[in-house]
Q: What sequence folds into this?
């Protein structure tokens, strides 16, 4: 019987997606949990994996076509499945004694290559950041084996089956290319129980399919990533897949309903125990610079060496915005389930100013100037790994609530290392807020190939002359760094003045004047 391949359940804010790449063709054999097709939405790229082994019998939607949530993309037929399925069929034809002999060895089995993920075109290589498992240590299917750090994101490498690492070919700190062999994996080794795939048919007949994968659940890779991201208890999630398998849709439903309990934090004690002891009166510690930190350093130096960078300053009275925020913050939180911050006002003000000054929204590509007919604003987010700049798309059409939700999401995923490459590509303008750390004034550095960046700072009460009288007002210094090769001083100053005027009279944002 054919099994339908369906698009994932899209979030409420995503209406449709586009079929990006089919990784399998009709007639190709597929294994359970193997990546079949990618769906690109306006926010993320979603992976669709095989819910069971078999043969891709039919493709219903071609690359480039538009699909809706849970739309049928193709079908998987029986036959031509994984080597494991074929090996399962043979014991059925033999006598019980021979079948028992095959199940007896638990110390080793089939060996497989553990490869690095396929890197996007913009990523040439990565660094093995850490191995979470040692050689000979038992692991379960889809458990994280290693982390690969690129200059943009951290990618996880998971176990293909239950078993153990037989050999590590690339140590921590080693450089690897796309799909390079990282280690040799032995299925069923390390004292692990027989693989979930081999137990599944027997367990299904005997006890309803209570296979162990994560806890007592079989969990798909995409679902496992969401469970880790939201720190959920797997046992509280009901699986709707074959044999009770937990799918990505089940996790999304649990997150939306809030039915899955938070998993107890178990890493803090281990982390503190693993921390090296500091010895001596004048201790020093030398650690290699991370790939992300190297990239940040390279780009910042490049920006200063290649751009004719200048900075112009101004100050804005934040009283009107603070009063508006104070008046409506509770209503806003109740209506949109997100707090009303200052960044939403700045993003909207910058979007309006960018429309009026297209040179500030342009970028330089060699000897060409690229004028963008849209506003994609990057928001600098500080993480433990370094500064990253995820991008809000089409901010001109976004509501302030959408901006605030996007920024909260970026901050959370940035701290957890869950930002994808697609989140940080592009961008026509950048906003950085040093004020949250107490900075009173600074000079932001350009984010190439963009030609301008806006720096926000701390709000501080200062005596100001207002209508001939001295008043204490909440003031903020603004800094606009710009590339003088592209932007004249006049336009840079007027751009910054426009943002100042929009913020000091927020009604202008609504009236677009």
A:
């Amino acid at each position: 019987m054919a099994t339908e391949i369906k698009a994932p359940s899209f979030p409420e804010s995503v209406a449709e997606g586009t079929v990006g790449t089919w990784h399998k063709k009709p007639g190709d054999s597929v294994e359970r949990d193997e990546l079949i097709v990618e769906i690109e939405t306006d926010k993320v790229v979603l992976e669709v994996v095989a819910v069971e082994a078999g043969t891709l019998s039919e493709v219903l939607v071609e690359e480039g076509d538009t699909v809706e949530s849970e739309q049928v993309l193709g079908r998987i037929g029986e036959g031509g499945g994984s080597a494991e399925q074929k090996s399962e069929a043979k014991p059925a034809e033999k006598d019980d004694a021979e079948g028992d002999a095959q199940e007896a060895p638990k110390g080793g089995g089939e060996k497989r290559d553990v490869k690095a993920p396929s890197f996007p075109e913009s990523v040439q290589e990565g660094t093995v950041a850490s191995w979470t498992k040692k050689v000979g240590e038992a692991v379960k299917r889809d458990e994280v084996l290693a982390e690969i750090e690129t200059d943009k994101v951290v990618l996880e490498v998971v176990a293909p089956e239950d078993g153990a690492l037989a050999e590590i070919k690339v140590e921590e700190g080693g450089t690897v290319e796309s799909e390079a062999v990282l280690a040799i994996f032995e299925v069923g080794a390390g004292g692990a129980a027989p693989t979930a795939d081999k137990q599944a048919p027997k367990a299904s007949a005997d006890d309803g399919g209570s296979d162990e994968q994560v806890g007592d659940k079989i969990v798909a890779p995409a679902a496992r990533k969401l469970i880790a991201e939201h720190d959920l208890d797997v046992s509280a999630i009901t699986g709707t897949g074959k044999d009770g398998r937990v799918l990505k849709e089940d996790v999304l439903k649990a997150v939306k309903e809030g039915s899955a309990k938070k998993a107890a934090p178990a890493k803090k004690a281990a982390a503190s125990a693993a921390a090296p002891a500091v010895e001596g009166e004048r201790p020093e510690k030398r650690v290699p610079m991370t790939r992300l930190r190297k990239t940040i350093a390279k780009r910042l130096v490049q920006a200063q060496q290649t751009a004719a960078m200048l900075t112009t300053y101004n100050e804005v009275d934040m009283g009107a915005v603070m009063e508006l925020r104070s008046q409506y913050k509770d209503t806003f939180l109740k209506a949109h389930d997100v707090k009303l911050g200052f960044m939403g006002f700045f993003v909207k003000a910058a979007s309006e100013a960018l429309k009026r000054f297209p040179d500030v929204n342009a970028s330089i590509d060699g000897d060409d100037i690229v004028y963008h007919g849209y506003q994609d604003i990057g928001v600098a987010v500080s993480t433990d790994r370094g500064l990253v700049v995820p991008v809000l798309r089409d901010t001109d059409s976004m509501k302030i609530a959408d901006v605030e939700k996007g920024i909260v999401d970026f901050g959370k995923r940035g701290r957890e290392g869950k930002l994808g490459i697609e989140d940080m590509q592009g961008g026509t303008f950048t906003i950085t807020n040093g004020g949250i750390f107490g900075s009173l004034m600074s000079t932001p550095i350009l984010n190439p190939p963009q030609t301008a960046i806006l720096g926000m700072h701390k709000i501080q009460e200062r005596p100001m002359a207002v209508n001939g009288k001295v008043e204490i007002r909440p003031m903020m210094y603004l800094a606009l760094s710009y590339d003088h090769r592209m932007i004249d001083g006049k336009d840079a100053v007027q751009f910054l003045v426009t943002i100042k005027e929009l913020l000091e009279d927020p009604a202008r944002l609504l009236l677009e004047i």
About this structure: The mean pLDDT is 78. The first helix runs from residue 83 to 93.
